[in-house]
Amino acid sequence: MKTQFIFSNLLKKFTEIVFGFSTKKGGVSPEPFSMNLSTSVGDDLKNVERNREIFFNEFGIGKEEVTFQKQIHSSIIKYSDRPQYLENCDAIYTDKINNFLVVSVADCIPIFLYESKKKIVACVHSGWKGTYEKILSNTIEELKEKFSIDPSELIAFIGPGISQENYEVGEDVAKYFEDEVKYKKNGKFCLDLKKDNYNQLIKCGVKKENIEVSELCTFNEKELLHSYRRDGNKSGRMFGVIGIRSKN
């Protein structure tokens, strides 16, 4: 099966940026894992390592150039000063070249940020907890405090994630969110995490024309994307990667 990736039209305009998002297509793992990139879902570790090689090779990235994060559905943000493995966080950012940031996804919303003047990238993993706790807004605030960025200069890509129609939650979760991003159906609430994160970007001062939102729903795209909500323990994970490549 030919390996397939997802890209951002906005980020493509910046030749120094390396960005891509994996799918189920390709890889060496047997079904249902396919192009699984996670070591914690029961897939054979040798297969995962090979899948990661395939993924990073596509973008000319060496494993020694990657910052991974141990995602815990939190609102914890960490700065990466060099390629490394960061424990217990769900947003990472860097101003270092050849330091490629990874987010792992199987329904939660991935957001990628780039500030081209000061050459800063960030990636955010935002499930319902992170969205409620405004991890995306807080990441932008941290970039403002640390680098004095202007949010209107940010480019943002909201990647594939679960759509509102497929993300049912109970009152215990829905109560934390505005009516604008939820509706009730059959005693449950359908929650729009992409819209909430989009709204956060706008409130932070990111321009509408600088925001791109993937319409792909992880739950709906059974042949293309992994989804934990759809497949449970049989679900693999996808990677999104962003970084700045040196001109040398």
Structural features, described:
By secondary structure, the chain is of the alpha/beta class. It has a single domain, classed as CNF1/YfiH-like putative cysteine hydrolases. The chain contains six helices and 15 strands. The protein has helices at 45-58, 128-132, 135-147, 171-174, 193-204, 228-231; strands at residues 5-6, 17-22, 66-69, 77-79, 85-86, 91-94, 100-105, 109-115, 120-126, 154-158, 168-169, 182-185, 188-191, 211-213, 238-244. The strands form three sheets. Strands 1-2-15-7-3-5 form a six-stranded mixed β-sheet, with no helix packed on it. Strands 4-6-9-8-10-14 form a six-stranded mixed β-sheet. The chain has a three-stranded antiparallel β-sheet with strand order 11-13-12. A hairpin with a 2-residue loop joins strand 12 (182-185) and strand 13 (188-191). Helix 3 packs parallel to helix 5 (193-204). The longest helix is centred in the N-terminal third of the chain and has 14 residues, at 45-58. It is globular and about 55 Å long. The chain starts with a strand and ends with a strand. The mean pLDDT is 97.
